[in-house]
Amino acid sequence: MLTDYDTYDFAHRRHIGPSPAEMAEMLETVGADSLDALIDETVPKSIRQAAALDWPQMTEHAILARMRELADRNRVTVSMIGQGYHDTVTPPAIQRNILENPAWYTAYTPYQPEIAQGRLEALLNFQTMISDLTGLPIANASLLDEATACAEAMVMAKRVAKSKSAAFFVDAGCHPQNIAVMRTRAEPLGIELIVDRPEALDPEAVFGAIFQYPGTHGHLNDFTDQIAALHDAQALGIVACDLLALCLLKEPGAMGADIAVGSAQRFGVPLGYGGPHAAFFACADAYKRHMPGRLVGVSVDSHGNKAFRLSLQTREQHIRREKATSNVCTAQALLAVMASFYAVFHGPKGLHHIATHVHAHAVALRDALTGAGFTVAPEAVFDTLTVDVGAMQGVIWRAARAEGITLRKVGADRIGIACDELTDAEVLTRLLRAFGIEGQIAATRSDIPAGLQRQSDYLTHPIFHMNRAEAEMMRYMRRLADRDLALDRAMIPLGSCTMKLNAAVEMMPVSFPEFSRLHPFAPAEDAEGYKEMIDELAERLCVITGYDAMSMQPNSGAQGEYAGLLTIARYHAARGETRRICLIPTSAHGTNPASAQMAGMKVVVVKAAENGDIDVEDFRQKAEAAGDDLAACMITYPSTHGVFEDTVREVCEITHKHGGQVYLDGANLNALVGLAKPGEFGADVSHLNLHKTFCIPHGGGGPGMGPIGVKAHLAPHLPGDPLTGEGAVSAAPYGSASILPISYAYVMMMGGAGLTQATKVAILSANYIAARLKGAFDVLFSGRNGRIAHECIIDTRPFADSAHVTVDDVAKRLIDNGFHPPTMSWPVAGTLMIEPTESEPKPELDRFCDAMLAIRAEIAAIEAGEIDAENNPVKNAPHTMEDLVRDWDRPYSREAGCFPPGAFRVDKYWPPVNRVDNAAGDRNLVCTCPPVEEYLEAAE
Ligand SMILES: Cc1ncc(COP(=O)(O)O)c(C=O)c1O
């Protein structure tokens, strides 16, 4: 090396925040001789891995070249496969200003509404759009994929239907991947699936039924009669539908449907070889408190101004645990935002135009094929048709491939064709040539049977009628982004969420067309680059975790939990054992018990000891009591208390002794990579939140990826392919494949040594914060030598008595300092869980610590009676610009209120609203866009 400064060292120069000199200072503060000494004091020897991770680091330019090489091994054709996935035009303004904009993609789930008004508004637009198009009054802010949404609808129907039946009817015209995922979900819950043609439905025999509209082979049916019959039998009617089709077709609400689900993918979200895409879920008003996923609602702030927030959080796993409505945590917020902007960008007329374009091409195609003597079904089409080609299937399919078009093979003798936004006369000419038909055809007419035509308006809200010039669109996207606090402005110290750097270079390949424009069911020969990348990533993840096999299917951590527990259940079943009990410590994340319940297991809660660790004696007793019924335990390591427990091996051994399997929640893997491998110290299966440890951005509440790693004995029981296997948990074989390049690039650029160093620095940074806050705040839990893992929990409960200050007050005051509050009241009520990650440079860590100490000083002033106990900067936080300019009658200065230590003077972050009233929003649930006058008032 020419100098000792390697500017291309991504791991140490770009990803890891503190410089070597800063690290030396931090080590001094924590009182450790060196980074390695700190790690030795912190991580139990008994779990340390023997061999170092050993692959080399790549530079940013080398990884881009590698990604290009892999991309070149994928082949993009004109995809006319359909089956729930369609090519679409992502408006460049949305691609650049949302998908590729860190202000949008690095935000966290909007649990702190004051710093999330922008994305909450965009998500409310999404809900309004879904509600309008489906004709149902209430819609959530996205689910993981259409197949999962179908399964969620089925389970919700079971919960709310008055029918006592245990059977559920599935229209055989549903997309096969939807049926596969519903089958997986039904089995452990004892739901019998009846898959048949809609005509065969016996409403008395089921608690609900789902119909696909248009059907997977293009059929358009009006399900009004079936749904009415279901209602007579106290059962629910569900329609899985296509948003674009609903621009022309009678909507599910008009058919009387109780629930409508589907995917918003074709609203400007790239195919991505399966995802990520936003699924939607809409329902009748009566069921709104039972619906899965997150729901954005409208409330007011402390000045009575309109403010958005996540509603009905009391339904969620964090509170209801195994009784929760569903386990959905991370969803698809960023993609829902993109889809909502697609609707804003085009407006109802634009969407109607696109739908008509798609439909007219399908009609022209149908007419040309029937004119040439082919038998085509159905008679009435929206975008998809199925051609009877007999023994010619292979020949025609290959001829189309030669024309650069990929079609769907249906059975042995039919071919499915789906038109999309990009279908034009030239594509149809090539396609018809494959069928042996020469000549041009023109798409000139629409042909939807009168009874199926949509009668109602949609997207009438002014937000979908704003000026659509790009200048206006760009500014609207910018305005919303500016209301939010994402990683591009400040550290987000959310414990358990690992809000680390999502490097620009990691994000770039996501937009390569060779990754973004592949259909999930494209022939394998078109996805060789993907396969190589996914295999290589899975292999590295196996090395990192000590597991033998990896399933890349789950789309989130919680879906990984569910997949992992099903894998365990199938393993027991294959050995002829029925085991149902799952031991879960009180400190577990709420998704753990919710997932266990979904997998058909019975949750037995294990106590925490005084110091926060698992109470091993209680664990032992409960494992013994479960005996032959012990299916699994679910533990998190390091624990959600931010501690490396010494007893983890013992807990694994007890579980194994009783024949159970160890599920280790991998959400905290950022404290383990390169130091310890769950697969080596006793765990059998883990999910990995790639959207935490492996740099996939949180997107304001998704996307995510939660692949599961397993030991060899569980490998045969991993989720199967949704089309050809059994036990699928996602619609697409590799879940949200198009975001895997992010994790791949991270793992390759860091190299084994860089990843290990990142873990060590994450632990150093957390200990540094704990050391700096010591004395001012109690750090609730610590492990060996008083050290903590990669996060720390500080206690704010004493301030309730001493100063009437709550955890909310401290969190909201941090917003004035320009920070996203840490994780609040989990796993212990009244605490803050702080996780800095390795990516934050020391000046940012110090800015945060200074802010926390300044808040502590304010609390001390309240305790000492120096400032009013109710009218003070902490209680009134956060402060808005409006506060600054309105009459100031407070017993503290404007400066003290609005510019506390840590807040930037010039680049000050101003929350757009004051503290949001949570209860008011739940009492008066409004989940679609409020009238435009309120927007105007807010802007004035
Ligand atoms: C400990 C733990 N387990 C599981 C999850 C669920 O992961 P996801 O949100 O990806 O579903 C989380 C998410 O924050 C978590 O912190």
UniProtKB/TrEMBL annotation:
Cofactor: pyridoxal 5'-phosphate
Listed CDD domains: GDC-P
Span of domain Glycine dehydrogenase C-terminal: 758-879
Superkingdom field: Bacteria
A Pfam family assignment: GDC-P
Positions of the Glycine cleavage system P-protein N-terminal domain: 13-435
Keyword annotations from UniProtKB, A to Z: Oxidoreductase, Pyridoxal phosphate
Enzyme Commission number(s): 1.4.4.2
GO MF annotations, alphabetized: glycine dehydrogenase (decarboxylating) activity
Enzyme class per UniProt: oxidoreductase
Entry similarity comment: Belongs to the GcvP family.
Quaternary assembly: The glycine cleavage system is composed of four proteins: P, T, L and H. Homotetramer.
Name under which the protein is recorded: Glycine dehydrogenase (decarboxylating)
Species this protein is from: Jannaschia ovalis
